[in-house]
Every structure is written in C-alpha cells, then in structure tokens.
Amino acid sequence: MKSVYTSIDQDLEKGDLTQTSISALRRDCLFNYDELLQKSIRIWNQEIWQKNTVEIEAGDVKPQVAINFARYQLAANTPRDARMNIGAKGLTGEGYKGHTFWDTEIFILPYYIFNMPNVARDLLKYRYLGLEGAHKKAEFNNYKGAQFPWEAAWPSDGETTPLWGSADIVTGKPMKILSGFIEQHITSDIVFAIMEYLSATGDQDFALEMGYEIILDAAKFWASRLEYNEDYDRYEITDVIGPDEYKEHADNNAFTNYMAQWCIQKAIQVVNLLKEDNPDIYEALNEKLDLNDIYDEWVEKGTKIYLPQPNELGVIPQDDQYLNKPIIDLEPYKLNNQLSNIFKDYNLAQINELQITKQADVLLLLHLFESRFDDEIRRNSWNYYEPKTTHDSSLSLSTHAILASDLQMGDTAYDFYEKACETDLGKHIGKSVQGIHMASCGGIWNMTVEGFGGIRIMNGKLRIEPHLPAAWDSLKYQINWQKSLLQVVVTHEKMVVSAVGKGVEFINNGQEYQVPTNSSIEIDISVEEKVKG
Ligand code: IFM
User: Fold this and answer.
1) Which molecular function term from Gene Ontology is one that the record holds (predicted)?
2) pLDDT tens digits, one per residue of 151-184
3) For residues 124 and 139, what is the distance between their CA atoms, to the nearest angstrom?
C-alpha cells in the first residue's frame, strides 16, 4: 500500500507531510484487500460506469470496448484539482512532460461538459487561475490582455513549451519549436470551450466569477495582436502556426482568424450583457481591464478582420500561401496507420513548402463553426484537404470522422472512426510508448456521441441529428443538458429522447421539440437513413 503526499496537496491535515502520510496509511490498513477492492468497484460504478452510460449494440464488440477504454482513461487521468489539468498523455507516460494543450478545450472538454459539468468547470477554472501566466506571456510579446500559453503546467508559470525539439533529418541539428511563440489559436480555443460550457450548463456563477473575465481578457489580447493592412483596409494576423503544425510562419490562417474574430465578438456581447444585467460586475471588470476604452476598438476590429473566403473551387484557403505550394502524392506515407512517415523523406522546412497538412485545420474550423458554412463548402474542403493530410497528430482522425458523418459519408466516417479508435488500442501500439493520447480518448467519445449520436451545440441550443453507422444496430447514450439528464436511444428507424427530471428542448432537422419532464418523445428517422443509403 502506498500513501504519497506533497507540499502542494490541498486539504492537508495540520502537521507535517510524514505524519499526514502515516495517518492515511493507518486508515487504509483498517481494510483488507478485498474490502478495498469492493470500495474501488463501488466508486467506479457510481461515479463513472453508471453515470452517462454509452451502450453500442453491434455485431462487433470493438466499439463498446473503445468507448469504455476512453471513459476509463478520461476518468483516471483527470485531476480533481483546478490547479492542474489534463496532460496530453495524461499520467500514462512522459511525453510532453505532462503539459496541457488545446487538446483539453477542443477535444476533451465536450465529454466533461456533457457528462460531468463540475469537472468541466474545474478544467476551465484552471485557465482562470492561469490568467497571471497569460498576462506574463502577452507582456513578454508586447501584447495586451491574456495570451494563453501553448503548453501549460502550473497555472502561474505562463508559457512552458520547450525551445528545442528532435534533430532535423537533413541538417542533423535540433529543430526549434515555434509553437510557444506563434501557435496562438489556443487563446480563442479556451473562449470557445467556455461558451460551450455556458450553453450546456447555464452556470451563471461561473460566467460572472471567471468565464466572462477570461473572454474579455482574451479579446484584449486579440485586439492588440491584429495588424492593420491599409491596402485592403482590414486587420490581419500574420506569422502564425495554425492547427496544421506543418505550416510555420503562415499568414492569415483561416482557423486562427475566424476564431479571433469570434472571440472579439463574444467579448462585445459580454460587455453589452453585463452593462444591462450586472452593472456592478461590469464596473469591477472595467476597473481591471479598461473595457470602456477598448469597446469601440473591438467593434471596429471585429468587423474588419480578414476572414479567408471560399475560392473558385469552393474551398476555404488554409492561409495566404498554402494553395500556391506544390502538391505531392501522400498515399505512400499514409500506409499502415503509422505516424510521421513523411519525415523519412522530407524535413520540416521542406514540408512547410508543400501542400501537406498534419491534422484537421480548415476542416476543424468547418466542424466547430458548422452553421457558418454550407454543405458544399464543407464537402469541397474535405475533398481538397483530406488527401493532403497525413493525420500525423492523434487529434486529426476524430474530427474527420465527425465531419464525414455530418456530410453523410457513412463508410468513410466509419473508416476514420475505426482508425481513430486504434490510436491507442490497435496493432501499432508503438505510437503510445510515450503515453496514450488523451485527446484521442476525448475523440472516441466525440465521434460516438457527437458524431454518430448527432449531439451538437448550435448557437447555444441543443441539436440532435444522429447518423447511426450501418454496422451498428443501436446506440444509447445519456448527456447532461441545462441541469437535466437526457437519454437518447438511436436505431436505424427512430430515435427516442427521454428527459430524466426537468423537461428539455432540442432541435432536429430545423424543427424544435420539447420533451416534457420525465417523459420521452420518439422521432422517425428512417427517411433520413434511406436518403443516406
Ligand atoms: O496539441 C497537440 C498538437 O495539436 C499536435 N501535436 C501534439 C499536441 C499534444 O497532443
């Protein structure tokens, strides 16, 4: 039996660490192995397995194993202390030194928002506690407001991305890691996650105590970051890395620009809301952040940020340079579901000059902001970018699976789903030597419940539009929405939505539905399924 305490533990009993540790051991020794095992089983059942179940009926047991694996790993690797967050590899290995990335906000948080909103709140509180470090980073770079670190450790540390990475295959010299300097979308990703959390929970206390302040401080950063281009009378963001980390020094990365604009627009809405409903809180925040002085600047810059538009092929350009670069055939590098094959032949500087994408970039934008782009743009962009994507990051496959499912590309979606589940469960387990991929675990839940289960937050409202894979007979899941528990059972013919407790409203194919308290409603989806073929 082990009992480990350190000086940063909260709720330490009075007395020294040794004493605390010995007392804990003595308490545990009152129970024998079987009793402790039973206690552990009880807690896992009550806290995890019986809460928000996901049940898949299919000829194959693998999908159920995958979702159980993901839920187990998420539970086991998430600290229950807001001063800490989820490492990219959780606690399963030393890759990325335990640091936290945007993986939490964009890929893992949906699971917590819909299943354990209290844990989601703590994960976001971590960013609130990180404002000090984010101010440090902004100041260091001559910006204002809060610029969140690309890699984060202890909240007040600020940026912790290492400066140097592995050796370049051509020069033999260590490669400089630029993400800590120019991969800046993390600041908007945090704002995005806060808005998702607020929509799903309506947690006003969090909004007023922490959430709104983060949004306002983030918008201050973006307003100071934007660059005016007088030739076009517009604001641009040059020299960044977007989600596609194979493009360094990109100008006007679409994902970064759209997210920055959205962040500023949210801040404007927050100011208007606070002035109206909570003037005292507005005044307190104004005192801290000089909101009165910056509001007009936000309005001007928010409307004039350059947002890359679809080109003649109906494709959103990833950035100003990408579409003019040479294209190579990536098929040989995509074999065997292995990562980074491309580096056997090219170094990063060479890849930078080719149309090669590491992970969903434009496609992630189209997924997160789906209401802003029609199906044609999403389909054209998929057809353009997917063949140019190596999926060398574990964050890539799940986004592709969800987007393909939304676009009614059932077989392709399932293919991506299966590959994504294999990230830490498949034959090529070598990928996990430095630890498993927590964002991929979040991705398994996202593909299952958001993708096939059809759950999405659209303009603050819940939408449920399932696309059950042909290989599955049914999918049953539960989610929390606005303090209600919702159960959805999907088959190829119908979906049944039940509210356990308070009633729930949701949208399906443009129509609003209301499930009364403790009741169910049934929607026929067999027609959609037939159209899909
Ligand atoms: O955050 C990711 C990044 O997008 C791709 N490389 C790995 C990081 C940690 O998972």
Assistant:
1) hydrolase activity, hydrolyzing O-glycosyl compounds
2) 999 999 999 999 999 898 889 999 999 999 999 9
3) 22
**Ligand 1 nearest atom to the CA of residue 179, by list position:** 3
Whether 65 and 425 have beta carbons less than 8 Å apart is answered as: yes
Q: How far apart are CA 409 and CA 406, in angstroms?
A: 7
- The reported pLDDT for the residue numbered 70 is 98
Query: Contact 507/461 with Cβ under 8 angstroms?
Result: yes
pLDDT single digits (tens) 355-410: 999 999 999 999 999 999 999 999 999 999 999 999 999 999 999 999 999 999 99
The predicted structure's pLDDT at residue 336: 63
pLDDT digits (tens, 9 = 90+) for 211-265: 999 999 999 999 999 999 999 999 999 999 999 999 999 999 999 999 999 999 9
What's the sign of the alpha-carbon dihedral 431, 436, 437, 443?
positive
**Residue whose tokens read 């703590």:** 122
Structure tokens at 261: 């604009």
**Residue 244 CB neighbours (<10 A):** 28
Name residue 346's amino acid. Y
User: What sign does the dihedral 468-471-474-479 (CA atoms) show?
Assistant: negative
**3-state class (DSSP) for residue 353:** coil
pLDDT digits (tens, 9 = 90+) for 334-358: 876 677 889 989 999 999 999 999 9
- Closest residue by Cα to atom 10, ligand 1, is 88
Instruction: Report d(CA 91, CA 94) in Å as an integer.
Output: 8
Q: Determine if ligand 1 sits within 6 Å of the CB of residue 246.
A: no
User: Helices marked H in 291-437 — which ranges?
Assistant: 291-304, 348-352, 362-368, 375-385, 396-406, 410-425
Are 180 and 96 in contact, with CB atoms under 8 Å apart?
no
CATH class of 31-452: mainly alpha
* Residue range 20-37, pLDDT digits in tens: 888 889 998 999 999 999
Q: How many other CB atoms sit within 10 Å of the CB of residue 203?
A: 20
Rounded Cα distance, 397 and 414, in Å: 11
Q: How many residues belong to the chain? A: 533
| DSSP codes, 47-90 | IIITSS-EEEEESSSHHHHHHHHHHHHHHHT--SSTT----TTT
3-class SS of residue 326: coil
pLDDT tens-digit map of 98-152: 999 999 999 999 999 999 999 999 999 999 999 999 999 999 999 999 999 999 9
Q: Which residues are catalytic?
A: 245
> Distance (Å, rounded) from C-alpha 446 to C-alpha 41?
26
Asked whether the beta carbons of 364 and 357 are under 8 A apart, the reply is no
The pLDDT confidence band at residue 11, using thresholds 50, 70 and 90, is low
Q: For the chain, what are the domain ranges?
A: 31-452, 479-532
Cβ(282)–Cβ(271) below 8 Å: yes
In 10 A of CB 202, how many CB atoms? 14
Q: Please report the pLDDT score of residue 533 as a whole number.
A: 38
How far is ligand 1, taken at its centre, from the CA of residue 392, in Å?
10
- Residue 432 Cα to ligand 1 middle (Å): 14
Ligand 1 lined by 339 (C-beta under 6 Å): no
